Amino acid sequence: MVARQMAGSGADVLLLDRYEIGERQTSACAVPTGWLENLGLMEAERQRFDAVVVHTAHGTTRLPVPWTFSTFDYRTLCDLLWKDCDATFETAKVNGRAESNGDGTIAVDTDRGVIKAPLVVDAMGWKRVLAGGAGYQPPDAPLSRGLEVHPAGSSPDFEVWITRRYLPAGYGWSFPAGNEVRVGMGSFDPKHPVRPPTDLLADDIPVEKDGYQGNWIPHKLRPATGNNVFFAGDSAGHCLPVTAEGIRPALYFGLALGLELRAVYEGFQTREQA
Ligand SMILES: Cc1cc2nc3c(=O)[nH]c(=O)nc-3n(C[C@H](O)[C@H](O)[C@H](O)COP(=O)(O)OP(=O)(O)OC[C@H]3O[C@@H](n4cnc5c(N)ncnc54)[C@H](O)[C@@H]3O)c2cc1C
User: Fold this and answer.
1) Which atom of ligand 1 lies at the shortest distance from residue 175's CA?
2) Is 271 a member of any domain?
3) I need a labelling partner for 88 at 20 to 30 A (CA). Which of 20, 116, 246, 261 fits?
4) Which residues pair with 31 in a beta bridge?
5) Could you read off the pLDDT of 165-189 as tens digits, one per residue?
6) How far apart are the CA of 235 and the centre of ligand 1, in A?
């Protein structure tokens, strides 16, 4: 989103990721449909829902939602976002900050060498690599944890489970996306394992336990700037803590940050003002 917002400005933008664009899906990929529509990303939509089916220990209810939710295909969405950028992409693993030589640029150490730039964004998730991760590690840091399976299958319903059968604090989900379903568990307590409840939910539904993917999910804001680096998305804790929805805030704050950095590049404000 940041690079997309800089497109056409003439800035020399380099996007780095340890994987190719769209290679590793990081979530169940459910967002309010309006975000896909307004960003021109509807080609990535796989299924749309106008209600959430909520299962509790006391019963099941179908709650209409005031706006629809959509699941999307991760790779298609990433490709669509990238198509609107005029940046350069390279795969590299970022290790952290490197020694700067005092010329105003920020030096970043990667497994392919050191890179320097006047404006640097860390959008690498909860590890917040460019701030130095020391002292912020699960299970003690304020992080939720999530795990899901992605078996082939289909369902018309967007479902959540809020019951202690699975977790003391958290919820389970089944988000269908055309010809696959994304079934998982999120625990607000980072000390509580999510593999057994994910397996139990998959057995209850039932679905195959194929394609596990999981991660830590921040449930507390962190500073969006520090040491001249900008942070957006999970690196700044921009995730809605109760639902663990991190995609729309990542899109929102990525867009906002892109506007700020574009104004720096175009000379309307300084990096410090941004
Ligand atoms: C199981 C699960 C299901 C979820 N489901 C949903 C959902 O349905 N809807 C929703 O809104 N949110 C969901 N979330 C939360 C959502 O995935 C995150 O909040 C969101 O992906 C944050 O986006 P981001 O761009 O900040 O970070 P990420 O999506 O984590 O992207 C970080 C990128 O940085 C790269 N990277 C990381 N470290 C390095 C490094 N050292 N060097 C180079 N590159 C690096 C990674 O490869 C990755 O591409 C879910 C989370 C989990 C764990």
Assistant:
1) 8
2) no
3) 246
4) 70
5) 999 999 999 999 999 999 999 999 9
6) 9
